[in-house]
Amino acid sequence: NAGVTQTPKFQVLKTGQSMTLQCAQDMNHEYMSWYRQDPGMGLRLIHYSVGAGITDQGEVPNGYNVSRSTTEDFPLRLLSAAPSQTSVYFCASRARGGLRGTWSQYFGPGTRLLVL
Amino acid sequence: EDQVTQSPEALRLQEGESSSLNCSYTVSGLRGLFWYRQDPGKGPEFLFTLYSAGEEKEKERLKATLTKKESFLHITAPKPEDSATYLCAVHPLFGSSNTGKLIFGQGTTLQVKP
């Protein structure tokens, strides 16, 4: 299994441009999430999905859109990039259920985004 | 408010010098507590899940323990390759139970010198 994969690894955008960060997993996990990681802020949840066709907002959803048409893929769209969106973005997935209703979450390698 | 605090922020050890990292949490019940290791430029790598106070998990030089208010990650005789940032996260019993939202600490950056 490849686990959680993300593309691209690095991207430079100009303010106002749009782009899509790709995330895929081959573990048949129902739950997928997008986080951003900034110095001093830790990992913050942007959007998440509990299954195909179902998405919801996390802590910092403004400026981002998601969709989940398949179990495997969970793309993150930046609608109009701003310098404040310069960050490292991580996609994560986990299985449903598990002991006491919790589970182990697995992260992708990340996408470093620079918005000029 | 649910909260996770890790200490210290940074820790420098000599190779072979054992120590512990702390993760204190304030949540309305606990479904699980997770430890991750993150190397520079990479995604967090899952290490352990702890569910109940008194539980312990071990992997090589690492041992994670859990009480009702905190978790410790003990590092025994560390090597330079143990240098990384260690993240703690909790899954509260209430509130986020249907969404699986995790609350992350800020992390502890460990440097082990040869």
Question: What's this, in brief?
Answer:
The complex is a heterodimer of chains A (116) and B (114). Chain A has 116 residues and is mainly β.
Q: Which descriptors apply to this entry?
A:
heterodimer, A: 116 residues, mainly beta, seven-stranded mixed sheet, 11 strands, B: 114 residues, six-stranded mixed sheet, five-stranded antiparallel sheet, globular
Describe this structure in words.
Chain A is globular. Chain A is an all-beta fold and 116 residues long. Chain A has strands at 4-7, 10-13, 19-25, 31-38, 42-51, 54-57, 64-66, 76-78, 87-94, 105-107, 111-115. Chain B has strands at 3-7, 10-14, 19-26, 30-38, 45-50, 56-59, 62-66, 70-75, 84-92, 103-104, 108-113. In chain B, β7 (62-66) and β8 form a beta hairpin. Chain B starts with a strand and ends with a strand. At the A-B interface, β5 and β10 of A face β4, β5 and β9 of B.
The helix fraction of chain A, in percent, is under 10%
Task: Please describe the biggest sheet of chain B, giving its number of strands, its sense, and whether it closes into a barrel.
Answer: 6 strands, mixed
Strand proportion of chain A: over 45%
Low-confidence stretches of chain A: none
Strand pairing plus helix content of chain A: what structural class?
mainly beta
Distance between the amino and carboxyl termini of chain B: 41 Å
| Multimeric state | heterodimer
The counted number of beta strands of chain A is 11
The tally of helices of chain A reads 0
**Secondary-structure element order of chain A, N to C:** EEEEEEEEEEE
Greatest interface and its residue counts? A-B, 24 and 25 residues
Calculate the terminal CA-CA distance of chain A, rounded to whole Å. Answer: 36 Å
